[in-house]
Amino acid sequence: MEKSSDIEFIVDKVILATGHSARDIFELLHSKSILIEGKTFAMGVRVEHPQALIDSLQYHCTLEDVEHKRDYLPAASYSLVHQVAGRGVYSFCMCPGGIIAPCATAPVK
After folding, report:
1. Which segments of the chain are extended strands (E)?
2. H helix or E strand, kind and range, residue 52
3. CA 20 to 30 Å from 25, out of 17, 35, 44, 60?
């Protein structure tokens, strides 16, 4: 059986789904003069709300009552999604009850 590295594919186009933090891949492709075209458009937003606010809204109680309910209920979850002219706008960073961990793709200046 051949190794996958021994197989050659002849194609006109390739879809490269690199995911997050792929700066090094794009730099490599650029250095080899490989044409890269982005997709038409995508938009994501980061939304931060205090967990107590989300809990009070989802559990239908006041902010004062939230502290008492924490003994019995987990952190409430939520997401923000909306369609505008047939295109999706969404929140990509939802961390109910958790922490927001920064994931920079380049050094902070």
Report:
1. 44-45, 81-84, 87-91
2. helix 51-58
3. 44
3-state secondary structure of 88: strand
Sheet containing strand 44-45, strands side by side: 44-45, 87-91, 81-84
Read off the pTM: 0.43
H or E element in which residue 40 lies: none
List the chain residues with pLDDT less than 70. 1-4, 19-20, 39-46, 90-106, 108-109
User: Count of alpha carbons within 13 Å of 8, Cβ hemisphere only?
Assistant: 1
| pLDDT, tens only, 71-102 | 788 888 777 777 888 777 766 666 655 555 56
